[in-house]
Amino acid sequence: TATFTGQLRVLVDVYNCASNNLCATLTITCATPPATVTNNECAGAILLTVSDACNMQSFTNAGATRSTVTPYPTCANSTTAANFHDVWFRFVAPANGVVIIDSAPGTMTDGDMQLVHGTCGSFTNVLCSVNDGVGNMPRIDTRCAPLTAGDTYYIRYWGRSGNTGSFGLCVRGFSSFPTPQEDCAGGNTVCSSAPITNEADYVGCVNDLN
To answer: Which of 82, 90, 149, 175 is packed most tightly, with the most Cβ within 10 A?
Structure first.
């Protein structure tokens, strides 16, 4: 960003002029820059509320540039400055440490995200997701690896292969989280011939069968 105002001059030269003496018409356009993205850097991370229901909100990474903090994500296909338009969010882990971070497509239909722990000046990558959600959108589930209660976690979100656009994001928590029925220790006692409803949405956290 310029720190001055006034006239600018642009010098355009020919590359490798010794072997290329061709001339061509040149057009220079001055366009309005995209709107400032407040959460372009970790320090501007948007606070997300953790609730029992998924409160899907719409965000965008249009106009974002590659943030300056490292380490970069562990599941990114590329983190070059030209095609890594990441934005940041944060939330406080609930008492049981269990959250599901869901993402929904908007004008962006292929997103990635990394969950990190620490501060913007010093953090470690925790979990990374590429296509675990709806379509090609990411989803992070900590039911088998609960977070540290009361700690602040950050979400780094970007579009695959330089994609930019709108997307949905929410952090769902659980006021009560008993041992899941998908694991042997959480199995329900069968006391009658009443129909059993199975609403399992994952495979549990323990390898119950050898």
So the answer is: 90
* pLDDT tens track, the chain, 210 positions: 678 888 888 888 776 665 656 666 778 877 776 667 899 999 999 999 999 999 999 999 999 999 999 999 988 777 888 889 999 999 999 999 999 999 999 999 999 999 999 999 999 999 999 989 999 999 999 999 999 999 999 999 999 989 999 999 999 999 988 888 889 888 888 999 989 888 777 888 988 887
Query: What is each CA distance from 103 to 68, 89, 107, 149, 160, in whole angstroms?
Result: 24, 13, 13, 23, 14
Task: Tally the C-alpha atoms within 13 A of residue 16's C-alpha that lie toward its C-beta.
Answer: 2
How far is Cα 190 from Cα 10, in angstroms, rounded to an integer?
79
Whole-angstrom distance, CA of residue 153 vs CA of residue 42 = 11
